[in-house]
Amino acid sequence: MTGQPSWHGVTAQSACEHLQSHLHDGLAPDQVTARLAAHGPNRLPEKKAKSKARMLLEQFQSLLTLVLLGAGILAGIIGDTTDMAVILSVVLFNALLGFHQEYRAERILETLKSMLAPQSRVRRGGGKQEIPAEQLVPGDLVLIEAGDRVPADGRLVASHGLEIDESSLTGESVVVGKDHSNLHDADTPLAERSNLAFMNTVVTRGRGEMLITQTGATTEMGRIAGMLADTPESRTPLQERLDGLGRRLALIAAVVVGIILAVGLLRGQPWGESVLTAVALAVAAIPEGLPAVVTVTLAIGMYRMARHGAIVKRLAAVETLGSTTIICSDKTGTLTLNQMTARTGWALGQRFAVSGDGYGGQGAITAISGETLPDLRPALLAAGLCNDSHLGADGTLVGDPTEGALLSLALKAGITEHWPRVAEMPFDSAHKFMVTIHRAPDGLRLLVKGAPDVVMERCGFVALADGDHALTQQWRDQLAAENEHMAGQALRVLALAEARVDEAALADPLAAARALTLTALVGLMDPPRPAARDAIAACRAAGIGVKMITGDHRITAAAIGRLLGLDGEVVTGAELDRMDDAQLADRVEDIAVFARVAPEHKVRIVAALQAKGHVAAMTGDGVNDAAALKRADIGVAMGRTGSDVTREAAAMVLTDDDFASVVRAVRRARTIPTTSSSSCVSNYPPTWGHFCRCSSPPSSV
């Protein structure tokens, strides 16, 4: 097995031959043993964990802490036990706080590991077995079905209506249709490799069989785990300033104490008395109350933000948030609602607009021309009936978000029919449409929804206000133009069609889906949050830049960016791959939208902004965001939709997943540096007053 091909670009048979496996029987037992020894267990890489003692000792490494520690010891030497107790208590409190935060950070990889599939069904030696997922090796044939978590990376060799939720890897919530046909472009982006399945993604529909190509650390999820382990947490601006303060205090105290010691000796003061005076001055020069005041100030800021839906997990992050100059925001669910919604469409010869968000029936359908619309219920029947989703008792969607958008459209149109479904052909990524047959009062009705180009090929008629008309070439061209018009607005377009059929159609719904009548085209999108545009404008007014980062297509990302008021270039992950770090740093400030990005791209974007001197905040919800959240000056996780891994990696968690909440948190946090600075100033007068009193010559001199 020398050399790794682009697995998505080779046939299933070629992939099997390369891995010396068998397409039907799988690996032989002796092959499994040899490969397990060569590749190791199928688990994520582990680094040697720090001991708790080492973690605790590392909390005493900052210069200000060492200065305070030294001051406390010196205070004890000269008999000032009160100062010693206060200083050492403050140092110990801050050390324990830092220890707790680092201990929590060490749990990130453990959380990621806990998400992996424990068991897998495989074909080995011609038979089916269920084995621990850790024992999988390249060349194994794994069977997957709805509800399974994919145990490793692999090339699909069979698929039947297979759909997989890849949001943990790509950040996009729309499920991905999968098939086993080979792709010819070797540079196909990760999110578009429809014949591959990836570790830790979830099968939502259908079933399939995959040939394992990568295990453990070499999987895409393994690379993310590696990035998480290798990405250092950024030091906050407050930590940098306090270290600088510690250096200055130590230097000033050393110089002044040296001078006082020399003066005392020159005046003939006894050596022991001069040393005690100098030591007292060293203690007096240190504002021992400063760490306590800063800690209390940050804690108050943390409490205030928590009351408004922003839970800060590290005290120093409160001040960092106030220093933020750039916010890198995930699109889905943060800048947008993460709810697919019908926005516009074409039916019975007219364009229509749809208002209202969410999956209920709130909203209306109106003609874009301003004219009165004909009754659209017959045209939109397929939206409500050719649909496997439904609303739960609490009004939440149960099922696929795209079908939820169509269900909502049907409710807005006033469709109340619940004709029994007597046959169906589920959506399949190979066919790109779904068929259902219903027993209506006037006979059997076949309903179809799917990709416009595929559905239109099966249509012979088009429904207009005055009845069905033959689907001439002129009508085909006009409908293709309508499709392109909606697609140009970053809308996902679906076609609806129907036909009246007889009992024979029940045996083969796919074959019966011919000579259909096209009834409607529907444009869907995940709309921007209502407050997001105003929040971005508020950021701009406050001197904070906003970058949108998404795994979505360039056209969709650019359109959403325009709706949100993001001005600047749009760059894809493929274009980022052609830039080195210096080139990216030169351009990063001019780029407003990053599309089709992979996890490593997000880390590079944050690093490039930091290289330009920015304090960068990063929002995210998926495992794919965790490394970038850890690298950013402040990582912000989504509390509702965020994964456990992301919440562990982040410094702040939003309880409402709303971008506007980030902006409000920054606004509140910007009061913290002012308060902290006032605290620093107020700490100096008493400290240096005490210093001056101690440095006055004793009466005996």
Automatic annotation (TrEMBL):
Subcellular location field: Membrane
Name the record gives this protein: Cation-transporting P-type ATPase
Molecular function (Gene Ontology), one example: ATP hydrolysis activity
Transmembrane segments: 60-78, 84-100, 249-266, 278-303
Domain of life of the organism encoding this protein: Bacteria
NCBIfam families: ATPase_P-type (TIGR01494)
Membrane topology reported for the UniProt record: Multi-pass membrane protein
Organism expressing this protein natively: Magnetospirillum gryphiswaldense
Keywords: ATP-binding, Membrane, Nucleotide-binding, Translocase, Transmembrane, Transmembrane helix
UniProt keyword annotation of Transmembrane present: yes
